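agent> step 3/5: call structure_predict on target 'V-type proton ATPase subunit G' (Musa balbisiana).
agent> reason: downstream docking stage needs a structural representation; sequence fetched in step 2, passing through unchanged.
tool.input:
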Amino acid sequence: MDSNRRQSGIQQLLAAEQEAQRIVNEARNAKMARLKQAKEEADKEIAAYRAQMEAEFQKKVTQSSGDSGANVKRLELETEEKIQHLQSQAANISQDVGQMLLKHVTTVKN
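tool.output (status=ok):
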């Protein structure tokens, strides 16, 4: 009878060990499934965020490109105005500069 009882106890321990191993395996599988799902969700969020940031970047590039054309035109106009101003000043003082140069060239110093 002792032998049967020991055999029965061993059988119970083996059954309990198998049940524990099954529970651990199920928990491990569930954990892996949750990790995989979390990774997929994170990847989706990252992709959405990246798309949003890319769209904002492209919008800013487009805006700055449009502004760039306006800036170029504005700078061209300002440059042309400055050139005209310098040409008119040069025309106004060119006669005076010519006379001053002639005076200095023809004046003899001791």
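agent> step 4/5: record observation. The CA atoms of residues 6 and 12 lie 10 Å apart.
agent> proceeding.
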